[in-house]
Amino acid sequence: MTTTPPKLWDISPPVNPEAPVFPGDTPYSQAWTAQIGPGGPVNVSAITLSPHVGAHADAPLHYDPQGATVGHLPLEPYLGRCRVIHAWGFQGPGARHSDRLIRWPHLSHAIDETLPPRVLVRTYERAPIDRFDNALAAFAPETIERLADLGVQLVGIDTASIDPAASKTLDSHQAVRRRGLRVLENLVLDEVAEGDYELIALPLKLVTADASPVRAVLRELPPVQRPALALPAPEDPAFADTPFENSRPLEL
Known about the structure:
- The chain has a 9-stranded mixed sheet with strand order 1-13-11-5-7-9-10-4-12, with no helix packed on it.
- The radius of gyration is 25 Å and the shape is globular.
- By secondary structure, the chain is mostly beta strands.
- The protein has helices spanning 104-107, 141-149, 171-179, and strands at residues 8-10, 29-34, 44-48, 56-58, 79-86, 101-102, 118-122, 138-139, 154-157, 182-185, 195-200, 211-213, 217-219.
- It has 3 helices and 13 strands, in the order ββββββαββαβαββββ.
């Protein structure tokens, strides 16, 4: 018998010189330091980039001067069951700043007692992988608090930040700091239906960095295997109260 391997969704945007970054941040660039040719058997490049380019994991150091670096974070929050939730209505031409915050009513339709400890939120119909969106949707800090109350350990979003682009107080990042959550940003969830998946998005062991690029993927969960019902054997305690013995017929 052959089994079909679980489906994978690559939820990472391309990383190249056109990859958008926050205004003032360091874009991706690459230079060749060695190339295959006479006297050279390999290609080797040097790359320069902000660790916030593409899909990435924020470390506490990013928003807390005393916070941990990304290379010292436990990996468990970045690997395991997650729920993708679709939240819409943030990108309208007349949307105000306050209208672009993900509030509880945007998520509540997909919240129940089976909520996994990881939540990824889709806000775009098509993520802008070639431009920076100053009108990006972000989490309201009270939404972060409420997810933390339900045991969520990691939040992810398909925008460049869990806070509005113009925010100077970073209220949602500070809520994450207080509650000990982990953050993934710049995901691409365009092709991902609402539901539960296995998340795999491990940061690099950059021991002094404030963030790390990740190759974020979702993997299809295996179907639930329900055990077959089995009848108890005669010696099973389940027979203890039955009005017959195994060795003789039932007497009425």
